[in-house]
Write a structure and sequence with these properties.
11 strands; 123 residues; mainly beta
Length: 123
């Protein structure tokens, strides 16, 4: 499976962005998906996950209430809606997939990754 992420960019604090992560190669309806982000000099951080059928989601505290992860398995796409963006959300964002019903908060739990996409939030 290959993941193609899109939707990053530059936004002012308080603004919104929507990421799309589209899978190709096969259906990824059997795979859970996680979103991570990384700033220079720090480890890649898990921020959100969605189960393979989309019924369950999880967010770390720093994005809870502002970010929403969703998926459309008919379109082989997972989305991350980011609202009320803050300067500290500035990072390179990654989507990743793993076979199984639920996400993992560990990078090693994922077998394929999308390319990183830069988000810059100006204050």
């Amino acid at each position: 499976v290959q993941l193609q992420a899109s939707g990053g960019g530059l936004v002012q604090a308080g603004g919104s962005l929507r990421f799309s992560c589209a899978a190709s190669g096969r259906s990824f309806s059997s795979d859970a998906v996680g979103w991570f982000r990384q700033v220079p000099g720090k480890e890649r951080e898990f921020i959100a996950g969605i189960s393979r059928n989309g019924d369950y989601t999880y967010y770390v505290d720093s994005v809870k209430g502002r970010f929403t992860i969703s998926r459309d398995n008919a379109k082989n796409t997972v989305y991350l809606q980011m609202n009320s963006l803050k300067a500290e959300d500035t990072a390179v964002y990654y989507c990743a997939g793993r076979t199984g019903p639920y996400w993992s908060d560990n990078m090693a739990g994922y077998s394929y990754w999308g390319q990183g996409t830069q988000v810059t939030v100006s204050s």
